[in-house]
Specification:
The protein is α/β, with parallel strands linked by helices and about 120 residues long. The chain contains 4 helices and 5 strands, in the order βαβαβαββα. It has one domain: 3-Layer(aba) Sandwich (Glutaredoxin). This is Thioredoxin.
Length: about 120
């Protein structure tokens, strides 16, 4: 199976999707019902610990998991009020509904996602 890195609406996303900029993030959150956005940095230890959790959630849930590198996209991170990494923002029906800072456990993240996918 080939993966469309743009995240087409008719495609199931079973791995985290790198975000290429503000327009791409808006496109992804508009196309998909539930999107969990991970604002991360490569040098961040908790971000690295969260990576396998997010990969699992992308594979196991209906949500699209999107990743924003805060070093590459500082303005985008700033526009969402990201002050520390990892910061996770949850979008439902194109609107931001949750934001959490820190590496949260898989069951807590799954619960947040399921609240908006049922």
């Amino acid at each position: 199976m080939t993966t469309d890195t743009r995240g087409g609406a008719d495609q199931s996303m079973n791995e985290p999707l790198p975000i290429e900029g503000e327009a791409h993030l808006e496109e992804v959150t508009a196309k998909h019902d539930v999107v969990l956005v991970d604002f991360y940095a490569d040098w961040c230890g908790p971000c690295q610990m969260l990576e396998p959790v997010l990969e699992g959630l992308a594979d196991e849930t209906e949500a699209v998991v999107a990743k924003v590198d805060v070093d590459s996209h500082q303005q985008l991170a700033g526009s969402y009020g990201v002050r520390g990494v990892p910061t996770l923002a949850l979008f439902a029906d194109g609107e931001q509904v949750e934001q959490q800072t820190g590496a949260l456990p898989a069951d807590r993240l799954r619960g947040l996602i399921e609240r908006y996918t049922e």
